[in-house]
């Protein structure tokens, strides 16, 4: 048996390999199969979805109510600090968060020593808010890292406040809802290609150019896209680390499904519109409300694979504008319905790839 050939066949049968995981970290390889379907835009869309689109829980800064504060800490500073305390998603997702209230009461009666207080000192109670706090249920195991330092009180100082919990995303509600502390990917280096490139660099410039050329020299498929993406994740236990990639795939699948449904009913859609392109070429602009470059880059990357598409590009007119324009040009004889079918086809192709990638991921991890 040819061992090298056997290993290669195993690799190309599955996207995911070389999984290394611990409680709060995960590393794995994503390898392009022979069909070479995994564009950079797709891997980057998953990365961005993990960072900004997945829902989480956090203390809400605007609900903090200080009844006592004789410490040196500014109340706005304290509210920011509290909002960054990690909260257990799995536990909170089973509860009605409108009935959860955090209560913090700390004082230092020691005449000399400082006293420290931690995340776990914010006590959480569950039940109707009009019921006295002592009659509500105390919540445990809500803090993945209970010993996060919250504040330090000098002698004779006191702090007392209540605060509520909310659900949101990094994109819509701020960094306190981000479920990840590290999320990145990098291409697998090609040492042979790097040696070949560096051999042509003058000796006096090797030190300067070696880091730049190292980034350019990575293993590629026949089409020139990365052969291997090394994906790395770390978090603080807010959400189980192994579920993040799967949830990001589901987010993108649901996003594309919703856009497909809107295009199929475009005459009554409030989030997707189609306009004749104001250019010399024949084409149409698809306008997606509340969308960004992530969707546009996906559409362009996979649209360029279609030989029927003569031109495809995307634009967000302004950072404050939440509209995404995707411009497409087909053959002169193509009608508007052909454009709609083509855009739907691109999205369906991406969904199929995501489903395959997610399936391989779940079976490997």
Structural features, described:
The chain has 365 residues and is an alpha+beta fold. It has 2 domains: 3-54 and 184-188 and 226-364, Gyrase A, domain 2; 58-176, DNA-directed RNA polymerase, insert domain (RNA Polymerase Alpha Subunit, Chain A, domain 2). The chain contains 10 helices and 16 strands. Strands 3, 4, 5, 7, 8 and 10 form a 6-stranded antiparallel β-sheet that branches. A 4-stranded antiparallel β-sheet has the order 1-2-12-11, with helices on one face. Strands 13-14-16-15 form a 4-stranded antiparallel β-sheet, covered by helices on one side. Helix 2 packs across helix 8, helix 8 (244-264) runs antiparallel to helix 10 (336-364) and helix 9 packs across helix 10 (336-364). Residues 1-12 have low confidence and may be disordered.
Task: Give me some keywords for this one.
365 residues, alpha+beta, Gyrase A, domain 2, RNA Polymerase Alpha Subunit, Chain A, domain 2, six-stranded antiparallel β-sheet, four-stranded antiparallel β-sheet
List the helices and strands and how they pair.
Elements: H1 3-13, E1 16-21, E2 25-31, H2 40-52, E3 56-59, E4 65-69, H3 75-83, H4 89-92, E5 100-107, E6 115-118, E7 123-126, E8 137-139, E9 149-153, E10 158-168, H5 170-173, E11 182-187, H6 191-199, H7 206-216, E12 228-234, H8 244-264, E13 272-276, E14 284-289, H9 293-303, E15 311-315, E16 323-329, H10 336-364
Antiparallel strand pairs: 1-2, 2-12, 3-10, 4-10, 5-7, 5-10, 6-9, 7-8, 11-12, 13-14, 14-16, 15-16
Helix pairs in contact: 2-8, 2-9, 6-7, 8-10, 9-10
């Amino acid at each position: 048996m040819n061992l090298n050939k056997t290993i290669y066949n195993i690799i190309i049968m599955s996207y995911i390999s070389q999984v290394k995981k611990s409680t709060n970290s995960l590393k794995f390889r994503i390898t392009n199969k022979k069909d070479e379907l995994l564009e950079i835009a797709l891997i980057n869309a998953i990365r961005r979805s993990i960072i900004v689109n997945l829902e989480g829980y956090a203390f809400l800064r605007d609900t903090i109510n200080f009844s006592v504060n004789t410490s040196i800490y500014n109340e706005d500073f304290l509210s920011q600090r509290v909002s960054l305390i990690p909260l257990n998603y799995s536990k909170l997702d089973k509860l009605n968060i409108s009935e959860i209230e955090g209560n913090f009461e700390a004082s230092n009666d020691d005449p000399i020593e400082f006293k420290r207080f931690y995340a776990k000192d914010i006590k959480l109670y569950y039940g109707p808010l009009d019921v006295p706090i002592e009659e509500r249920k105390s919540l445990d195991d809500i803090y993945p890292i209970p010993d996060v330092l919250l504040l330090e009180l000098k002698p004779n100082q006191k702090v007392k406040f209540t605060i509520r919990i909310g659900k949101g995303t990094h994109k819509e509600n701020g960094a306190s809802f981000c479920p990840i502390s590290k999320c990145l990917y990098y291409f697998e280096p090609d040492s042979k290609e790097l040696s070949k490139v560096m051999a042509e660099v003058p000796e006096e410039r090797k030190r300067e150019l070696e880091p730049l050329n190292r980034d350019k020299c990575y293993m590629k498929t026949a089409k020139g896209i990365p052969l291997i993406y090394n994906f790395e994740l770390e978090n603080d236990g807010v959400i189980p680390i192994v579920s993040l990639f799967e949830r990001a795939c589901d987010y993108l699948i649901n996003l594309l499904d919703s856009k497909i449904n809107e295009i199929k009913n475009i005459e009554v859609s409030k989030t997707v519109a189609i306009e004749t392109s104001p250019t010399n070429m024949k084409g149409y602009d698809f306008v997606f409300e509340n969308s960004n470059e992530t969707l546009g880059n996906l559409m362009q990357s996979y649209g360029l694979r279609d030989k029927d598409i003569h031109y495809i590009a995307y634009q967000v007119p302004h950072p404050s504008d939440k509209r995404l324009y995707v411009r497409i040009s087909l053959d002169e004889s193509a009608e508007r319905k052909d454009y709609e079918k083509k855009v739907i086809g691109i999205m369906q192709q991406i969904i199929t790839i995501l489903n395959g990638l997610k399936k391989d991921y779940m079976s490997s991890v």
